[in-house]
């Protein structure tokens, strides 16, 4: 296919250069958006009298046919084409040799690719938001069933204080809910039409940018034509939001990987979301969680690619910007794939509540509550902290729990201990007394689940 810009040149482009210069393998994904933008542009050109109305109608009809034929496979996108814009225009001019040549009036590939990318990524952002909500829904369903499942809460990966699995999973819900909010904010800034910016300086034709923006579902138009074609900050923002989603997925993956191990045995993944070993028949590996953890670094690389691409290029458009699509498309598709698999993996996961409870009992995670008991009896917290720490050290030495100490043994460290101490440091009491907003008591977690449900019910 001859390049539509070749009139200025006396020699054909070297084949290797053409292949290096081509972006069709990546931007071919945007054929629907490219045609959608062209249809809106043709409607506007006809309505404004810039091209004859009958030509506009013929162009729109032919573009719709091309879209259907690409979708059905009747037309295969030519890998030798420079980009999707040239391919579609080439197909159009084959069908409409004269009228087809009018389509590119008052338009540049610079604003064309800018509008294509925004349309494509707007749809992908909606998919991401829906996928994040599905994940939050899965976490919510598992949490609802485990409001009384006691487990150790950790700091430094050391058993720290008692929580419930519901409380633990609600923390991830909060993270992913913020991720959804970031995506919605990103979508608002993305949903601005650059079409009509031309190559960089607009056009001398009496176009109606507001008309094309409305036809394409944009909230408005870019108010500066150079900015319209030369920035990709909305892609950086989307890549950043995707990277944060993957950060949260990776942290959850790490915990699931730990919890699946024989050392923890807190959960067991369904066979459909695990793999085995080619040599060790006893193995059941959490490969999905491991792959999600691994793919997180990939989305970080995509974000850095976009930032680095933009940091040194002057206004307006530069060919460097062709590198944006591969990075942002990979970022979005990787994140979508991970989200899509994660939700059903969680819903089919078996929770070993007994193992969680046993771990909670053996971790001295009621030591803070023991100190708080003494504080309520009148001892200053630092003094109570020392008594509790001394008792923990004694229990570690003897291999017993705090609850196993006799009252006489407790009173050796402080006369303030009484029979009610055992009730005060039981795990159930430790949990249910933590009623502050956001805490792990059943009452507090119930309120958290209500907040999550409100998020899920939003449209």
UniProtKB/TrEMBL annotation:
Species classification: Bacteria, Bacillati, Bacillota, Clostridia, Eubacteriales
Protein name: Argininosuccinate lyase
Domain Fumarate lyase N-terminal: 8-301
Gene coding for it: argH
Annotated keywords: Amino-acid biosynthesis, Arginine biosynthesis, Cytoplasm, Lyase
Pathway note: Amino-acid biosynthesis; L-arginine biosynthesis; L-arginine from L-ornithine and carbamoyl phosphate: step 3/3
PANTHER family xrefs: ARGININOSUCCINATE LYASE
GO cellular component assignments: cytosol
Naturally occurring in which organism (per UniProt): Candidatus Stercoripulliclostridium pullicola
HAMAP family cross-referenced by the UniProt entry: Arg_succ_lyase
Reactions catalysed: 2-(N(omega)-L-arginino)succinate = fumarate + L-arginine
Single Gene Ontology BP annotation: L-arginine biosynthetic process via ornithine
Molecular function terms from GO: argininosuccinate lyase activity
Annotated ranges, domain Argininosuccinate lyase C-terminal: 364-432
């Amino acid at each position: 296919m001859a390049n539509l810009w070749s009139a200025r040149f006396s020699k054909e482009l070297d084949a290797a250069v053409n292949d290096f210069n081509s972006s069709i393998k990546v931007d071919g994904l945007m054929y629907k958006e490219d045609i959608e933008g062209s249809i809106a542009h043709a409607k506007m050109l006809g309505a404004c009298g810039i091209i004859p109305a009958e030509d506009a109608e013929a162009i729109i009809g032919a573009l719709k046919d091309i879209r259907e034929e690409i979708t059905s496979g009747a037309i295969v996108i030519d890998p030798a084409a420079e980009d999707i814009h040239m391919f579609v225009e080439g197909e159009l001019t084959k069908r409409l040799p004269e009228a087809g040549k009018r389509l590119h009036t008052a338009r540049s590939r610079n604003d064309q690719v800018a509008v294509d990318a925004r349309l494509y990524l707007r749809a992908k952002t909606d998919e991401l938001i829906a996928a994040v909500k599905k994940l939050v829904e899965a976490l919510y369903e598992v949490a609802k069933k485990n409001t009384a499942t006691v487990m150790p809460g950790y700091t430094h990966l050391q058993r720290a204080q008692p929580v419930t699995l519901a409380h633990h999973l609600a923390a991830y819900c909060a993270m992913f809910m913020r991720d959804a909010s970031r995506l919605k904010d990103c979508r608002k800034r993305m949903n601005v039409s650059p079409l009509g910016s031309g190559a960089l300086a607009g056009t001398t034709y009496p176009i109606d940018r507001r008309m094309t923006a409305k036809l394409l579902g944009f909230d408005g138009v870019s108010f500066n034509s150079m900015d319209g074609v030369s920035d990709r900050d909305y892609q950086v923002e989307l890549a950043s939001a995707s990277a944060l989603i993957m950060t949260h997925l990776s942290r959850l993956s790490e915990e699931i990987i730990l919890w699946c191990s024989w050392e923890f045995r807190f959960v067991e993944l369904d066979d459909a979301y695990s793999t085995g070993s080619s040599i060790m028949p006893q193995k059941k590996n959490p490969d999905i969680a491991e792959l999600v953890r691994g793919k997180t670094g990939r989305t970080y690389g995509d974000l850095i690619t976009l930032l680095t691409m933009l940091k040194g290029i002057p206004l307006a458009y530069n060919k460097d910007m062709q590198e944006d699509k591969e990075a942002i498309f990979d970022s979005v598709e990787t994140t979508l794939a991970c989200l899509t698999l994660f939700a059903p993996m969680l819903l089919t996961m078996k929770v070993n509540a007994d193992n969680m409870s046993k771990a909670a009992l053996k971790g001295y995670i009621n030591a803070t509550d023991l100190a708080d008991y003494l504080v309520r009896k009148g001892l200053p917290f630092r003094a109570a902290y020392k008594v509790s720490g001394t008792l923990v050290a004694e229990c570690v030495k003897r291999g017993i729990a705090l609850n196993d100490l006799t009252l006489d043994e407790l009173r050796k460290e402080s006369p303030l201990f009484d029979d009610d101490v055992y009730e005060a440091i039981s795990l159930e009491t430790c949990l249910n007394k933590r009623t502050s907003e956001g805490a792990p008591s059943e009452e507090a977690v119930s309120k958290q689940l209500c907040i999550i449900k409100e998020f899920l019910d939003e449209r």
